[in-house]
Structure formats: C-alpha cells, structure tokens
Design a protein that fits this description.
The complex is a heterodimer. Chain A contains 11 helices and 12 strands. By secondary structure, chain A is α/β, with parallel strands linked by helices. Chain A folds into 2 domains: 234 residues, Peroxisomal Thiolase, Chain A, domain 1 (3-Layer(aba) Sandwich), CATH 3.40.47.10; 152 residues, 3-Layer(aba) Sandwich (Peroxisomal Thiolase, Chain A, domain 1). Chain A is globular. Helix content of chain B is 33%, strand content 19%. Classes of the chains: A alpha/beta, B alpha/beta. Chains A and B meet through helix 4, helix 5, strand 3, helix 6 and helix 7 of A and helix 3, helix 4, helix 5, strand 3 and helix 6 of B.
Chain lengths: 406, 356
C-alpha cells in the first residue's frame, strides 16, 4: 500500500493571500481579526476574519477574465487550489498519465450569494446575472467549477461534516491514493463569510463579540472567518526524483462523539478516540508527538472537551499545543485544511505557533497551550497532530510527519 | 481469494410503498404533479418519542430508513455511518434563511440552523446508537452516495471485519424547485409520472427519499447481492465518451457488455439531459433490457441509493417489477445489473451489482 506524501500547499485567509504571507503572519503572531467590510449584515459590529479583497479583486487575483456566476467560496477555493497545484509543480495542461483527483469540502457552499439574491431568484420574472447563482448553494458547485478550471477529470467529490469537513476530505484523498485509485489528489475546503452562519452561531450564543480566546478561562465563543486551503497528496511513485515534500500523512482518524447534535461530551470521548487512532495508525506513541494544532474554537464546550481529551491522552505534560483560531477565526469547512497547511509549515520550519489571547488556564484543566512561538532550537517538529471537530459529533484527527530524508 | 462486498441489508422510503418488505412495487402510485413526496412509515416504530419530537421530517425519514436497514441486516453497531445527499436538510436550511431575511437577522430560533447541517442525519444516527465509529457525509450532487460506497469499500478492504451503514437522502423543496427551474431542472408543464419518458420536453420532476444499505465482506444469510464496482464521471462531452467510460468500467471489472442482464437507467424524462444515456442505451445495450425508476421516485441527487435498493431486491428475488417499465423481459437468471445514471446532465455514475 502506498504511503501518502504532501507535495503542495495553498492557502488564503484573513492572515494572508498565499502561503508565504500566511506563514509570516503566524510567526509574527499577527491576528487577521477586523471589521466586517465586505459582507453586509445588521451584525456588522461583530468582529470577523475577512479576506480583505472584493469578489472582483479575487477574480483578478485568480486570473479569471470572466468570473460571472462564481461564488466567493468558489473564488477562494480556486485561488488556494491553484497555489497548491503550482507548489506541487503539477502541469495540468499536459497529459502526465497520472490519475488526479479533487476533493473539496464546504459547509455553506454559495450561501453568501444565495441569501443575497434569494428573493430575486424566487421571482421568475426577474432577470440578470444573479440568475447564474440559481444552483450555487449546492455544495458540489464550487468543486466542479474549480476542478473544471484546473483541469481535474479523474475523480471529484465533496464532503460536508460541519467544521471537520476538509479534514475528512483529506482522509478520503489519502484512502484513494493508498488503494491505488489515484496517483495524486488535491484536498481541502473553502467557506466564505455569510449572514447564514453569522446568525446561526449568534443565535446559538457561541459567537464572541470580542477577539476569541482559545483554551482561556474567559473564553466566550468563536469568531467567524473565511478562507480556503488545499494540499496535494501524492503516492510513493510520484515522489521519486527528489521532489520537495512538505511531509507525510502518517495517520488519520474520524470518530463520532455520539453525545449531542451540537455539543461535545465534557470528557472529550470522541476527540480522544480520534487522536488515539491517528497516533496508532502511524505506529507512534503519544510521547512522540511534537505539536498539536488543536481545533480550539474558543467555545466553552469545545475547548473543555478537547482539553480534557488532550490531558487524558498525554497526561499533565502534553506536547506543545495551541489553537490558531485567534489568527484566522473559525473558517468552518476550510479550518481542517488550513490548519493542515499550518501543521506542514510547522514541520518544515520547526516552528510551533503561540496561542494568541491566552491569559488564564481553564479551571477544569491542568494544562495550558503554548503562548509564544517556539522555533528552531530547542524544538524539532517531527510529528504534528491536527484536530478538527464539528456539529453532529464529528471528530477528526490528522497526523503529519517530517519525512526523514528531507 | 479476492474480497467481495455484500449488501447485507437494505431499506427504502420513497414516493412509492417501499418500506413494506412484503411488496415489491406491485401497485405503483401514480402521480400527476411535479414534486412528489415520500410515503412515510410510522416513525415511532423506529425512533424514540423524545428525540422524534425535535426531528425534522427528513431526519425522521432518514433515521427510520437507517434503522430499517440495520434491522434487515441484523446489524446493531455499524463500523461506520456514511450518508450522501445533494441539498441535505433543505427544509431547515430554507426555513432558517427565510426567517433570517424576513426578520432582518433578528429574533431567530436555533433549531433550523443546527438541523441544517448536511451531516445532521449521520450525526443523529450515531447519537441514537451511541456509535463512536467513522462518520461522514458526502455532498456532491449525484456522486454523493457513490462516494460513500467507494469510501466504505476501501475501509472494508483495509479491515474485512468492518460493516458499514451507507445511505442516500434528499427532500423535496418548493423553493429549490422554483429557483432551479430557472436553469431548466424541472418541467414547465405538469406531467403524469408514468408518462415521464414520453413527455418530450425539457426538465424532470422533483422527488425525494432515503435508502440505506449495509455493506460488508461476509455473505450473511440475508445478503442481497454484491457491489463489484462504482464509477463517477463528470465533464463527459458526448455520447462517445460516455460509451467508452461505460465499456472501460465493465472491462475493469472483468466483464463485457453481453454479461449485463439488466440496465437500471437513471433517465429523468428530460429531452436534453437524457440524450447521452439514450444513445448509450441504444448503441451499447441494444440487446439488454433497460429498466427505469425516476418516474416512481422523481429525480434527486441521492436517487442512486434508491436504485441500489432496487438492484438489490431484483437480484435477490430474481424479479423485475412491471412498474419499472423495462424495455423487454429479462431472461432468468438475472446475474448482473448495471446502474447507469445521469443527474441534470452534469454527473454520470455507474454501479455494478452481481447475484450471489
């Protein structure tokens, strides 16, 4: 069975329009939090993590002369996927003979446009370019449009498991490579900010009006963000010839908490299982994990469950762990792949990111996240566990490892 | 010995009477409307009354179908729960959206939001079973259920002891119907469902349903058939490319066109979107009986789950119901069925089933 290597990464979020800018923000401990400039909502006072580009600017950046009917989610997805493809050195214009797939994830697809034009779309007498958004709420819309522009034909699919979506897209991609169905696959996810999610999380009272504070005693909820990130997975056969490899996906696990539709079990049972299984799959012991990029949404419930799970698995002296949600906000379906990119950058640069806005350890826990960046000596980042959890009890852990001969 | 993938249990809730196992489309329901809804069972037989009260209609339908399938397969705890859907919980999504727009983002209730997530059904099933195992949801139009099968097959290949609960669900929604009618998804005129294929017009009728299968590597007493392969194809340009894809798929599974005893076709009654399927049916399967089902269920993203229920029962019971309007009689024994679908002219998929 083939191993699974990561040969390309791409990301766009509030902390950078590409991987380089993103990493710069991470190492400078710069949050992407700001005001709501591009989305119109009555809740404009709520802080968000926006990509500070209009749809027209995104289309230009993507090099698309005609972006009519492309949703913001599609534009973000295309930009990040294109970066990953370029980074992996894939030339899609020639027939390489390699079977290539594209697996994307989204929670809301084209909801941003759908909610904006909903009443116009319902009125058959109204005509205009907005009508091109008629079926863009469909989650597959962004996947098919991006696949068509990039030129992926062999396999496409779309995953939606709430906030763990893109991690599960990565798992499907890895399985397809291991089982020999594909040679390489671009996996990730995208979500743009929309009123639907802002109001949804607000009414659930888990949207913080202050900057989010993951793992902090005073945490009071998430801040929403937007973005997209993709990674290119390739098989053994594709990575000969000394190509640049970001890392290897050595373990993954998807479990279900089976506790509550929208809340995690207080002891983090599902989260514990997911981390445990991913580590076992890689043939490692918990002590060998260098860094955990936690889901850490800063809701009271998630951070308690995840913190408990980390403590149960690693004891009172766990590896360095942090949430990067205070950098990017919660980008929903993009979170898993965005943090996969962060994990791979951590491995490549032997860096661990400080958990912004942390002041006081949670009463229920004996552990705290790292609060300032650690880089180079004294830390070598060999194995990074990346957690993504979501509504519906979804718990997914990915384990990325440094490639020995790198 | 190479691994086989047995369908160990099935269920279907659809606009036909399909949850009663004693009948097999014996008395099909005739409709004369373009949105057709499921005939539902007594949900209390499958769902505890407390959670039942809070569940939306599609979650009730999906949960009941999941439980029926588990009962049929005698499966208490699946090693994975996988669902596929196009619009997911469309009704809750639209309700939350409309409430938000009408109330200008004020005074909303959270229930519709939390139930609007695509994985609400797979999560609810896990919750009701206290099942901590693998759980995911695919949302790629008419590839959703197919992705789920592919996913499960790979995990069964990793560990042949595993058994998966895989389902497809979608619900009708008048708003989606109205909006996507702009792009020709549905017929402008009202059709009788049994005249769907002779309508000669653009568009189809909207349907819904939930169907589940239990898939595993062992042949249980109740097993229906095997799934030998699944293939999804998009960006198909013309009939020639579709023909080649079909033939390559069959060859990849070590069989040829002549080995197929029956084709279950996903024709939708749309003169435009059915074009390639009709050409393939005529050119490649000229001598093969072809059966249809979308007049019974309406069209929806996850209808391949219903077609899988259909293929499973046909292979087990060796009977092709007259309601399927097959082009000709199928000679006994029925050994291999090819399901060939198109959805809105964009996605093409195929699943190969074999008699045990």
């Amino acid at each position: 069975m083939s191993r699974v290597y990561i040969t390309g990464i791409g990301a766009i979020s509030a902390i950078g329009n590409d991987v380089e800018e993103t990493f710069q923000s991470l190492i400078e401990e710069r949050s992407g939090i700001g005001t709501m400039d591009y989305l119109e909502s009555v809740h404009s006072a709520i802080p968000v993590f926006e990509v500070k580009l209009s749809d027209e600017e995104l289309a230009r950046m993507a090099g698309l002369s005609d972006a009519k009917g492309l949703t913001r989610t599609t534009l973000l997805a295309f930009i990040a996927a294109q970066q990953a493809v370029k980074d992996a050195g894939m030339d899609m214009s020639v027939d390489s003979g390699l079977r290539t797939g594209f697996i994307s994830a989204t929670t809301c697809g084209g909801m941003r446009e759908f909610e904006k034009y909903y009443h116009d779309l319902l009125d058959p007498d109204k005509k205009g370019d907005f009508a091109l958004f008629a079926d863009t709420l469909d989650s597959a819309d962004h996947t098919e449009k991006v696949a068509a522009i990039i030129g992926v034909k062999d396999y496409i699919s779309t995953v939606s498991t709430a906030c763990s979506s893109s991690s599960n897209a990565i798992i499907l991609g890895a399985q397809l490579i291991k089982h020999g169905h594909l040679d390489r696959v671009i996996c990730g996810g995208a979500d743009s900010l929309c009123k639907f999610t802002i109001n949804g999380f607000k009414i659930l009272m888990i949207l913080d009006s202050e900057p989010c504070r993951p793992f902090d005693q005073s945490r009071a909820g998430i801040n929403l963000g937007e973005g997209a990130a993709y990674i290119v997975l390739e098989s053994d056969a594709c990575v000969k010839d000394g190509r640049t490899i970001w890392g290897e996906l050595t373990g993954y696990s998807n479990t279900n908490d089976a506790f509550h539709q929208t809340a995690s079990s207080p002891n983090g049972d599902g989260a514990l299982l997911a981390m445990q299984h991913a580590i076992e799959m890689a043939g490692l012991s918990p002590a060998e994990i260098s860094y955990i990029n936690a889901h850490g949404t800063a809701t009271e419930n998630n951070d308690l469950a995840e913190g408990m799970a980390i403590q149960r698995l690693f004891g009172d002296e766990p590896p360095a762990f942090s949430s990067t949600k205070a950098y990017t906000g919660h980008t929903l379906a993009a979170a898993g792949s965005l943090e996969a990119v962060f994990s791979l950058l951590a491995i490549a640069n032997d860096t661990v990111y400080g958990n912004l806005n942390f002041k006081k350890q949670m009463d229920e826990l004996n552990i705290s996240p790292v609060i300032i960046n650690i880089d180079g000596d004294p830390i070598v980042v060999h194995h990074v566990l990346s957690n993504s959890f979501g509504f519906g009890g979804s718990n997914t852990s990915l384990l990325f490892s440094k490639v020995k001969d790198q | 010995m190479s691994l086989k993938y047995y369908i160990q249990g099935v269920s279907a809730i659809s606009p036909q009477q399909t949850f009663d196992r004693t009948v097999f489309l014996d008395e099909p329901v005739h409709y004369e409307e373009n949105i057709i809804k499921s005939i539902t069972p007594d949900f209390k037989l499958y769902i505890h009354p407390v959670p039942l009260r809070r569940m939306s209609r599609i979650i009730r339908i999906g949960m009941s179908a999941a439980k029926m399938c588990m009962q049929d397969a005698d499966l208490a705890m699946p090693d994975g729960i996988i669902t596929g859907t196009g619009y997911g919980c469309a009704d809750d999504t639209i309700k939350f959206l409309e409430e938000m727009l009408v109330n200008k983002e004020q005074h909303l209730t959270p229930t519709h939001f939390t139930q609007s997530t695509y994985n609400a059904l797979s999560g609810s099933i896990a919750l009701s079973l206290k099942c901590n195992n693998y759980n995911t949801t695919y949302v790629h139009r008419a590839f959703s259920f197919e992705s789920g099968i592919m996913d499960a097959m790979m995990q069964i290949a990793d560990d042949s002891a595993k058994r998966f609960l895989i389902g497809g669900f979608d619900e009708t929604d008048i708003h989606h119907y109205t909006i996507t009618s702009r792009v020709g998804y549905y017929k402008k005129e009202v059709v009788k469902n049994f005249e769907l294929y002779s309508s000669g017009t653009v568009g189809t009728i909207q349907g819904e349903g939930a169907s589940f299968i239990t898939l595993g590597a062992s042949q249980t007493e109740n097993s229906y058939c095997t799934i030998d392969g699944v293939k999804t194809a998009f960006g198909i340009k013309d009939a020639e490319e579709l023909k080649q894809t079909v033939v390559k798929f069959l060859h990849g599974n070590g069989i040829s066109i002549a080995d197929i005893d029956l084709v279950i076709s996903g024709r939708s009654g749309c003169v435009v979107n059915d074009r390639l399927l009709i050409e393939v049916n005529t050119d490649v399967f000229a001598d093969t009986p072809i059966a249809y089902y979308k007049h019974l269920t309406g069209d929806y993203s996850a209808s391949s789950a219903f077609a899988t229920w259909l293929a499973s029962r046909i292979l087990k019971e060796q009977k092709v119901p007259g309601a399927l309007l097959a082009s000709k009689d199928t000679a006994a024994p029925i050994k291999k069925i090819l399901y060939l679908n198109q959805y809105m002219g964009g996605e093409y998929s195929m699943i190969l089933f074999s008699k045990i």
